[in-house]
Design brief:
2 copies of one chain form a homodimer. With 696 residues, chain A is mainly α. Helix content of chain A is 84%, strand content 0%. The longest helix of chain A has 72 residues.
C-alpha cells in the first residue's frame, strides 16, 4: 500500500484529536472528584495561586525575550531580509513564536491539572492507595497527552502550512528557547524553596517536612509544580519537537532525491503511532491488588514500548516505501532508552547496593557522603554514554546501506524511537510532583497516619521513576543532538553551495579551528550549570534569612499557636524574583558564546563547539542527575531506619548530600539537556550568517 | 651559523651535567646542615623510613607490571616480532624499561632529599623565615633539576642510541605508565592519611593538626612525600618527556622531507636552554628582606620565563634553519601557561573574592560550601580551556605557512615552550610538601610559637604556588596530548601506507565510528577518577577504624601521658596496602578500554576515543584541582579568623569542603593528566595492531 502524505497528516491529526479528547476526559474526571477537607482545599488554593503567579511573571519576562528574538529572526533568518524572500522571514518568525506559545501552553495546562490533582490525591489517600495512585497518575497523564499531542500538532501544522523544513527548525528553536528558560527558572525556584525549607525546618528547628509552621512550605509545593511539571513539560516538549524536526529535515532532503514522500511519511507515521501507543498505555495503567505503584508505573512503560514496536512493525510491513532498517533504527533507540533507564535505576534505587554503600559511607560524615555519591555519579555516566554511542553507531550502520544520507537519518529515527513513548514518560514523571504535593497536603491537612503512609509510598515510587525518566530524557537528547549536528552540517552545505563556497565534508578534529571550538564548547555546560547552581545558592540564602526573620518576629509561630500563620507569600516572592533574575544570564551565556565562536571562528569552529558541547553536556547531565537521585534516595533509605535512622550522624550527613544533590538533579542536570538543544538549533539557524560574516 | 645535531647533543649533555652537578651541590648543602633537636631527628627518621617502605613496595608491584608490559612490547611492538625486525622490538622494550627506571629514579631522589630537607627546614625555622625558605626551596630544587635533567638525558640518549623516534614513544610510554601508577598510588596514600588524621584529630577529638598523639600523623607526613614529591615528580617527568617525544617525532619526519636536521636541533636546543634557564632561576631565587615566600617563588618563575625567552630568541637569531615562527609558538605556549597559572590563582587564592565567597557560603552549612565551591570549580575550567584552545590555534596558524606538517609541529613546540620552565615549576611544587612536613615537625618537636608561625607562612605560600603549578601542569598536558594526537595520526598513516590501506586525513566526527569513540573516551576520565576517589574513601574508612581502635586500646594516648606513643606503623601499613590495592584497577580500566575500542572499532574509533578523553579529561582535571584548592584555602581563610574563625559552624562546613577537596586536588585531578598521556601513547604504539586486527 502506498501511503500518501495527506493520509498520514490526517492520521496524525486523528491521534492528536484522540489524545486531546482523552486528556479533556481525564481532566474532567479529576475535576469531578470533590475536595471535602476545607483545610486542604485552602492550602491547595494557595499552591495554585503561587504557581500561577510565578508562571504569569515568568511568561511576562520570556515574552519580551521571545518578541525580541522574533524580530531578530524576522530580519535575519533564514537569510537577511534584504537578500532573500521576506515572506520566508515572516514565516520563520511566526514559526518561532508558535513554538514558544505551544511550549508555554503545555506548561500552563500541566500546572492547571497538577494543582487540581494534588488535593484530590491527598483526599483519595484516605480511601486507600489504589484510588490515590489512579488520581495522581491520571493527573500526570493529562500533561503527557497534552505535551505529545501539541508537539505532533505543531510540527505537522508548521510543515503543512509552510512546506519548509527550515521553518520547522524555527518552531523547534522557539520550543527550545522557552524550555531553556522555563527549565532553568523553574529549577531555580523549586530548589530555592526546597533547600531553604529543609535547611531551617529539618536541620535547625527539627520540625517535620511539610509542617505548616514553616514559611517556605507553600513555596516548596509551588516549586514542585513550576519546576517539575511546567519546566519538565517544556523540556520534553522541546526534545520531542527537536527529534521530529531533525528527522524531518533529513527525510525531506532524502525524499527530494528519490522524488517520493516515503521518508517524511515514515516519520509522521511512527510519531503518531507512538502517541497512540502512549494513549493505550495510559488508559490501561492500573495498580494491581497486590502490586506496588513503582511496578504499575514501570509495567505501563513496558506495555507502551511493546505496543509501539508492534504497531510500527505492522505499518512497516503494510506500507510501500517504509524500510525495515529504519524501523530497526527506531527500535534500537527505544531499546537503548530502556537500558539507560535500567542503569539509572541501578545507581539510584535504594533497594540496590550502591545507594546502600553511600548510606553506609555517611556514617563517617558528610564529606564521605559527597565523595562516594559523586564518584558513583561519575561512574554512572559511562553505561549511558556507551549506550548512546552504540545505538548511534548501530543505527548508522544499519541504515547506511539504504543510500547516501540514510545513515544520519537512521540516527535521527533512533532518537524518534527513543522518544516515541514520551507521552508515557511524561505521565510517569508528572505523577511525581503531584503525589509529592499530595504528601505535603496530607501532612498539613492532618489526614492521619494511614493517609500519610499511602502518600509516602506513592511519593517514593515517584522518586524512583523520576530518576529513570530523567536518564531516558538525557539519552533522547543525546541522540537528538547528534542528528541536529547532521542537520547543522546539511544547513551549512546548502548555504555554502548557494554562496559558491567550498562544502564541508564533516568536522575533522585535526583541523585546529574545529579543535578550538571543541574545547570552548566543552566548557559551556560546566559554566552554564555552575551559574544555575550559584543562583540557587544565592537565592536560598536570601530565603533562609526571610524564614529566620519570620520565626523571630511572628509571635507564636515556632510553638504552633492556634491561628498564627507564617507569611507564605513572602517566600514565594523571593523564589520568584530570584529565579527570574538568575535564569537569564545563564541562558544568554550559552547562546552568546555560540554566536561568538561562530562569528570569530566560522562554521567549522561551530561544528567543533557543538561536538564539545554535546560530549561534556551529556557527561555532566548524567553525573549531576544520577548523583542527585542517589543522594536523595540514600537519605530516604536512612530515614527508613537504616544506618542509625532519622537523627543519627549518618542521617545528618545524608541530608547534606541531599541538599547538594537537589540543584544537581532538579536544576542543573536537566537544564543541560535543553542547553545542548538550544545551542544546536542556534547553530543551524545561524549557519548562513556564520558562513558570510565570520572573521576567520 | 649551521648547528650540527651532534653539537646540540653535546650542548644538551653539558646542560644535563650542569643540572646534575648543581643538584648534587644543593643536596650536599642540605645534608651539611645539622639537625640538633633529637625529637625532630627521630620523627624525621620515622617519616623517611615510612616513605621508603612505601616506595619499595610500590616499585615491587610496578616492576612486575613493567616486566610483563616489556615482554608484551618485545613481542608485539613496533610490529609483531614475526613480521618486522626483532632488533627493533628489543630496542623498544629496552626503551620502555629505561623510561620506567628513569621515572622511578627521579621519584627516589626526590624522596631522598625531601625527607632530609623537611627536618632541616623545621630547624632553620627557629632562625627565621629566610633561612627556612632557602632550605625548603633548595630541597625542592634538587628534585626539579633531577627530573628535568633525567628527562633530557633519557630522550637524547634513546634517540642517539636507537635513531628511532618510535623508540622515543616507547621511552615516553615507560615514563607514563609508571607515572600513572605512582601518581594514583601516591595520591591514594597521601589522602587516605590526610583525611583520616583530620577526621579523627580535628573533627572528633579536637586536637591540633600534626599532634603527635594522632596515630595517623606520621602517615600523613609520609603521604606528603610519596604523593606530592614522588608522584608529582613522576607526573611532570612524564609530561616533559611526552612533550619532547611528540615534538621530536614530528621534527624527524619534517627533517626527513627537507633533508636537514634543523627541526630536531630546534627541539633539543630549546629544551636544553629551558633547563639552563631553570638552573639560573633556581640559583638566583632568594627571599628578599621585606618579601614574602609567595613573592619569592613567583618572581623566580618570571625570571626563568624571561631568561628562557631571551636565550631561545638568541639561538633562533644565531642558528640557520631555526624559524621565528617556531620560537613564536613556544613563546605562545609559555605565555598561556603563565596565564592559566594566574587564573588558577584568581580562583584559589584566599586574598581574592572567590575564596571569600565560598567561606561566606559556609555559614549556611556544608552543603553550601560544596555547592558554591564546585560551581566555581566548574567556571574555573573555562579560561584554561579557552587558553589551551587559543594557544593551539595560534601556534598552528603561525606555523602553517612554513609548509606541510609544520602546523602540528608548532602545537607541539607550544607544549615544549610551556614545559620549558618545568625545572622551576617542579622546584616550587616540591617546596610545598617539604615545608608542609616541616610544619608538622615543628609542631611535634615543640619548637615554639615563633618557629610555628614561620612554617605556617611557608606552608601557606606552598599551597598557593601548588595550585598555580597544577594549573600549569594541566595546561601543558593539554597541549602535549594534542600533539600526541598528531603523532598518533602520523603513526597510523605510516602503518597504513606500509600495509597498503587507505590513509586517514583526520578524524571526522560525523564518521559514526569516530563519534562512538568520542563518547566512550569522554566517559573514561570520569570513571578513572571516581575509582581513585572511591579508593581513598574505602581506605580512609579502614584507617579511621584503626585510629579509633588505638585511642580506645592504648591507655593514656588520648590524654598525652608521657612516654605513651601511638602505633604509627599500623597506619602507614594500611595506607600502603590500600593504595597498592586500589591503584591497579583504575590504571587498567584506562589502558584496557583503549585496547577494547581499538580492537573493536579500529583506528578511527581510537582517534575519537583520544579526543573525547582529552576534552573531558582536561575539563575534569581542571574542575577537580581548582575546586580542591579553593576549599583548602577557604578553610585556611576561616581559620585565620574570618566568618567566625576556628570552631565556628562556618569552619566545620569548610572542613567538610576541604575533606572532599583533598582527593579531588591531590588524587583524582592530577592523575587524570597522566591518564590522558598514557592512553595517547598506548594508542600511538598499538596503531599498527589496531589497523591489522580490529573487528570493524
Amino acid at each position: 500500500m502506498q501511503p500518501s502524505l495527506s493520509l498520514l497528516y490526517a492520521f496524525s491529526g486523528f491521534t492528536v484529536l484522540l489524545a486531546f479528547a482523552y486528556a479533556v476526559y481525564l481532566c474532567l474526571w479529576v475535576k469531578r472528584q470533590k475536595v471535602e477537607n476545607v483545610r486542604i482545599a485552602s492550602i491547595g488554593e494557595l499552591i495554585r495561586q503561587g504557581a500561577n503567579t510565578f508562571l504569569r511573571r515568568e511568561y511576562a519576562v520570556l515574552a519580551r525575550f521571545a518578541i525580541i528574538a522574533a524580530v531578530v529572526i524576522a530580519v535575519l533568518l533564514p537569510a537577511p531580509i534584504w537578500k532573500g524572500n521576506p515572506l520566508d522571514n515572516v514565516l520563520m518568525a511566526l514559526s518561532y513564536l508558535a513554538g514558544t506559545v505551544f511550549s508555554a501552553l503545555a506548561g500552563k495546562i500541566g500546572i492547571y491539572v497538577a494543582t487540581m490533582a494534588n488535593t484530590r490525591t491527598a483526599e483519595a489517600a484516605r480511601k486507600g492507595i489504589r484510588p490515590a495512585f489512579l488520581m495522581g497518575f491520571r493527573g500526570g497523564a493529562v500533561m503527557g497527552l497534552a505535551v505529545v499531542g501539541a508537539s505532533l500538532l505543531g510540527v505537522a501544522g508548521v510543515l503543512m502550512l509552510t512546506h519548509q523544513t527550515t521553518a520547522l527548525l524555527g518552531f523547534s528553536f522557539g520550543a527550545s528557547s522557552l524550555a531553556l528558560f522555563a527549565k532553568a527558572g523553574g529549577g531555580i525556584f523549586t530548589k530555592t524553596a526546597d533547600i531553604s525549607a529543609d535547611l531551617v525546618g529539618k536541620v535547625e528547628l527539627d520540625i517535620p517536612e511539610d509542617d505548616p509552621r514553616n514559611p517556605a512550605v507553600i513555596a516548596d509545593n509551588v516549586g514542585d509544580n513550576v519546576g517539575d511539571v511546567a519546566g519538565m513539560g517544556a523540556d520534553l516538549f522541546d526534545s520531542n519537537v527537536a527529534s521530529m524536526a531533525a528527522a524531518l529535515v533529513m527525510a525531506a532532503s532524502l525524499d527530494k532525491v528519490t522524488g517520493g514522500t516515503a521518508n517524511t511519511a515514515t516519520v509522521f507515521c511512527y510519531a503518531a503511532l507512538g502517541l497512540l501507543a502512549s494513549i493505550i498505555g495510559i488508559a490501561t495503567a492500573r495498580m494491581g491488588r497486590k502490586g506496588s505503584p513503582t511496578h504499575a508505573l514501570n509495567s505501563s512503560t513496558y506495555v507502551t514500548t511493546a505496543i509501539y514496536l508492534a504497531l510500527t512493525a505492522g505499518a512497516t510491513a503494510l506500507f510501500q516505501g517504509f524500510r525495515w532498517e529504519i524501523w530497526g533504527a527506531s527500535a534500537i533507540g527505544l531499546f537503548v532508552g530502556v537500558i539507560i533507564g535500567m542503569v539509572t535505576d541501578l545507581f539510584t534505587n535504594d533497594t540496590r547496593p550502591i545507594v546502600k554503600n553511600v548510606a553506609k559511607a555517611s556514617r563517617s560524615g558528610p564529606a564521605f557522603t559527597i565523595l562516594s555519591g559523586l564518584s558513583y555519579g561519575f561512574i554512572s555516566a559511562m553505561p549511558a554514554m556507551v549506550g548512546i554511542a552504540v545505538s548511534a553507531l548501530a543505527a548508522y550502520k544499519l541504515c547506511a546501506g539504504l543510500g547516501d544520507g540514510y545513515a544520519m537519518f537512521g540516527i535521527s529515527m533512533a532518537a524518534v524511537g527513543m522518544l516515541s513513548i514520551v507521552g508515557m514518560i511524561i505521565s510517569n514523571d508528572a505523577y511525581g510532583p503531584i503525589v509529592d504535593n499530595a504528601r505535603g497536603l496530607t501532612e498539613m491537612g492532618d489526614l492521619g497516619e494511614d493517609a500519610l503512609n499511602v502518600t509516602d509510598e506513592l511519593d517514593s515510587a515517584g522518586n524512583t521513576v523520576k530518576a529513570i525518566t530523567k536518564g531516558f530524557a538525557i539519552g533522547a537528547a543525546g541522540l537528538t543532538v547528534i542528528s541536529l549536528l547532521g542537520a547543522y552540517l546539511s544547513e551549512v552545505n546548502a548555504s555554502a553551495a548557494e554562496m559558491g563556497k567550498a562544502l564541508l565534508s564533516g568536522f575533522d578534529v585535526m583541523d585546529p579551528t574545529v579543535f578550538f571550538g571543541l574545547l570552548v564548547g566543552a566548557a559551556i555546560p560546566a559554566v552554564f550549570s555552575a551559574m544555575l547552581m550559584l543562583g540557587v545558592d544565592r537565592n536560598a540564602q536570601r530565603m533562609v534569612a526571610e524564614i529566620h526573620r519570620q520565626f523571630k518576629e511572628i509571635v507564636g509561630l515556632r510553638e504552633g499557636k492556634e491561628g498564627v500563620q507564617p507569611e507564605y507569600d513572602k517566600c514565594i516572592d523571593i523564589a520568584t524574583h530570584g529565579a527570574l533574575r538568575e535564569l537569564v544570564p545563564a541562558g544568554l551565556v550559552a547562546i552568546v558564546s555560540t554566536l561568538l565562536v561562530g562569528f570569530i571562528g566560522g562554521v567549522a569552529a561551530v561544528g567543533g563547539f557543538l561536538i564539545g558541547n554535546i560530549v561534556s553536556g551529556l557527561l555532566l547531565a548524567l553525573v549531576l542527575s544520577n548523583a542527585g537521585g542517589l543522594w536523595d534516595n540514600a537519605k530516604k533509605y536512612i530515614e527508613a531506619g537504616n544506618e542509625g535512622g532519622k537523627g543519627s550522624p549518618a542521617h545528618k550527613a545524608a541530608v547534606v548530600g541531599d541538599t547538594v544533590g537537589d540543584p544537581f538533579k532538579d536544576t542543573a542536570g536537566p537544564s543541560i539537556n535543553t542547553q545542548i538543544t538550544v545551542v544546536s538549533l542556534v547553530a543551524s539557524l545561524m549557519s548562513t550568517l556564520f558562513l558570510a560574516l565570520s572573521i576567520f
